[in-house]
């Protein structure tokens, strides 16, 4: 058998795309990566401790017991030709310095928001707008509730019209997959227009 017979067929290898899942502290990023990933996700969660008192804002998320301190990593195959590598960012402000490194090579992002605490979303939206990284907004419906329609959320967050705002549930695989597909569709549409 010739060595070339054993070589993998490069034409059949899928394209891989790096996607960030970003947002404020406690918006559901780890949950989203975990619910949609086809592999056991890598998580860097640590328990919340007394050291975070006065630093971490737990208003509205008092039940939160752990937090991501570096990143979450998961993978989802959208088709034979497309695999997404998902990198969940840490949400606490003291870990934001990692976002620049995590954003290297990313083609797009999902900014996950919690409408109970919309102010936690502004930094993530600003981060991607300043760097020209395309993104969609995923509105995580805690307890299955979506009290506001997407257009009200768009207006409240001053999200440009070309950015999709989608209602989702970070616990639901299909819901998260649909948000990722909307991002990929947006990336393809931008590439076609360029």
Give the key terms.
27% strand, 29% helix, alpha/beta, 194 residues, single chain
Descriptive report:
With 194 residues, the protein is of the alpha/beta class. It is 29% helix and 27% strand. Strands 2-3-4-1-5-6-7 form a seven-stranded mixed β-sheet, with helices on both faces. The longest helix is centred in the C-terminal third of the chain and has 21 residues, at 173-193.
List the helices and strands and how they pair.
Blueprint: H1 3-6, E1 15-23, H2 29-36, E2 42-47, E3 66-79, E4 82-88, H3 99-103, E5 108-113, H4 122-131, E6 135-140, H5 150-157, E7 165-168, H6 173-193
Helix pairs in contact: 2-6
Averaging pLDDT over every residue, what do you get?
Answer: 83
Q: Into which percent range does the helicity of residues fall?
A: 25-40%
Pairing-aware structural class of the strands and helices?
Answer: alpha/beta
Strand order of the largest sheet: 2-3-4-1-5-6-7
Outline, from the CA principal axes? globular
Count of DSSP helices?
6
Radius of gyration: 18 Å
Q: List the secondary-structure elements in sequence, H or E.
A: HEHEEEHEHEHEH
> How much of the residues is beta strand, in percent?
25-35%
What is the CA-CA span between the terminal residues? 46 Å
Question: Unreliable stretches, pLDDT < 50, 5 or more residues?
Answer: 1-7
Please give a quick description of this structure.
The chain is an alpha/beta fold and 194 residues long. Helix content is 29%, strand content 27%.
